[in-house]
């Protein structure tokens, strides 16, 4: 019997699984090295005022150029960092680097993504406090973006964590709203400072009237609760116009700017300062 079962199991054996595991281990090892040797970088994507299209903030997005492989998406390596104990150091790096960099942009707010694994850590608030102090950035300029996955499992603890973070003076936003199990209840009880509507809700609004109505209803809901709304994934002017009309006060997407290196943000700010001077002279 045991022998048969063993054989049955053997026939289910799939060598591809070993390869998968080996590849994953290699990736994890490389990621660990990248974090330790400071090889991760940050890209910054403009956040713009929906009415004027003027950049008033940036979202920091982590980037990893894996040696011998090229760029790896954060959607691939963040989950791996989560399950391999690397998320703490990765998250700390991102937060510190983003705050440090944003210090040179007093006219911009800075948004930083926080993953469930960081948020779950009871010491998270302490290390946010520590980074704020260390980098001397004004807390009110910093927004932490969290996704809803963890909240559903631990609503009570989530609410407490959000309160503690807000007591430091930072803002807390709900990221990717509309992509998962979001519900009205969550919006009401957690005290988010802002909601970011997921790109998947934005994509088809100018071609699909049902999508448009879903999005409109979602924005209306947030506004009924007095929570300001950012829409992400804006790729066309048409979308930008519609989303402003529906009540989003902040927009983000390739139409306004892709994620870019810090120097490019510097250039944009410099151009803007020069344009202002010219306008003053002309006017
Ligand atoms: P997210 O926080 O929702 O970030 C927005 C993602 O949408 C970014 O992808 C951005 O490049 C992309 N995006 C923005 N505008 C457009 C657009 O108009 N069209 C399209 N097609 N895409 C657009 P990215 O950088 O690949 O990041 C993916 C996700 O990985 C992020 O989604 C976030 O959940 C996570 N992530 C990124 N950086 C970090 C980080 O530093 N820490 C943590 N914990 N998660 C991060
Ligand atoms: Mg985000
Ligand atoms: Mg998002
Ligand atoms: Mg998203």
From TrEMBL:
<feature type="domain" description="EAL">
    <location>
        <begin position="24"/>
        <end position="273"/>
    </location>
</feature>
<protein>
    <submittedName>
        <fullName>Diguanylate cyclase (GGDEF)-like protein</fullName>
    </submittedName>
</protein>
């Amino acid at each position: 019997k045991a022998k048969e079962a063993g054989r049955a199991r053997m026939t289910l054996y799939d060598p591809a699984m070993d390869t998968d595991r080996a590849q994953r281990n290699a990736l994890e090892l490389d990621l660990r090295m990248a974090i330790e040797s400071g090889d991760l970088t940050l890209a910054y994507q403009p956040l713009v005022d929906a009415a004027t299209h003027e950049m008033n903030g940036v979202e920091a997005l982590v980037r990893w150029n894996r040696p011998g492989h090229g760029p790896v998406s954060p959607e691939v390596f963040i989950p791996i960092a989560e399950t391999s104990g690397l998320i703490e150091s990765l998250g700390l790096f991102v937060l510190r680097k983003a705050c440090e960099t944003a210090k040179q942009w007093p006219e911009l707010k800075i948004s930083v993504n926080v993953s469930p694994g960081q948020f779950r850590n009871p010491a998270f608030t302490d290390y946010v406090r520590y980074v704020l102090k260390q980098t001397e950035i004004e807390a009110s300029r910093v927004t932490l973006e969290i996704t809803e996955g963890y909240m559903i499992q631990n609503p009570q603890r989530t609410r407490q964590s959000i309160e503690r973070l807000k007591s430091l003076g930072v803002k807390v936003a709900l990221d990717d709203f509309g992509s998962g199990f979001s519900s009205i209840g969550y919006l009401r009880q957690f005290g988010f400072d802002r909601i970011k509507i997921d790109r998947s809700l934005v994509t088809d609004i100018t071609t699909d009237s049902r999508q448009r109505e879903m999005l409109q209803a979602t924005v209306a809901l947030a506004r009924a609760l007095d929570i300001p709304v950012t829409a992400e994934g804006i790729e066309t002017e048409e979308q930008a116009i519609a989303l402003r009309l529906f009540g989003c006060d902040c927009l983000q997407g390739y139409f306004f700017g892709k994620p870019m290196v810090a120097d490019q943000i510097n250039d944009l700010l410099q151009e803007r300062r020069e344009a202002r001077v010219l306008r003053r002279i002309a006017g």
